[in-house]
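Translate sequence into structure tokens.
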Amino acid sequence: LLETRSKPLNKKRLSMSRHGYDRHITIFSPQGKLHQVEYAFKAVRTEGITSIGVRGKDCVVVATQRKVPDKLTDRDSVKHVYKVTPSIGSLVTGMPGDALTLIYRTRNEACKFKYENGMEIPVDFLAQRINNLAQMFTQHAWMRPLGVSMMLFGMDAEHGPQLFRTDPSGFHCGYRATACGMKEFEARSMLEKKLRARPELEYDQAVQLCLAVLQSVVTSDLQARDIELAVVRADAPHVRVLSDEEVDEHLQQIADQQ
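Result follows.
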């Protein structure tokens, strides 16, 4: 009788142990995965927004969808592009609450660096600091990964235009072009094909590439009011968000080329 009772108990415990790997951030599954980190990547995509970033010859351009969650919401209060410093910007994609938390931490890191060193923080060093923070969230059981991906872009005095991306796993790398969000894989595939033929892009080409890829992967007729686009240029090294009129002008040029 004891033997027959022990068998279903062992099966139950085995089943619980298999499904328990996704409940703890610090425990690897037998397949070598941290499921909570993978769920954080899914949280970025489930917001239904796609973001594109392109580094040109003397500029960086980032673009994303502007989705108003409610008809009563003030459209101007919904944004995904933030200034970290006058010459460094960030584009956040994912959970809004986590995004604001990461923005405040990024600004704090930039201010702290300037206070201690008397100069603006380099974009690559800021990206490394934020990625170290994200990676630390995967090591402690009392934390959880942030469900947000951030593109950091700016103009560096030594290296020129810079584009970096952070993600919930803490991976750190610079990009010529990248994408994140709901349609990131389709967007990356298109960017690879486009940049293969034109490795160096002028300002107008970079802006129109961002908009063309965003329109293509979203598969809808985006209007200027549905797009948030920001740029930083070598001749004007300050982050600037383009107005609806400027975005609409570039959309018209894309339509004329087609």
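Note: Residues 96-117 form the longest helix (22 residues).
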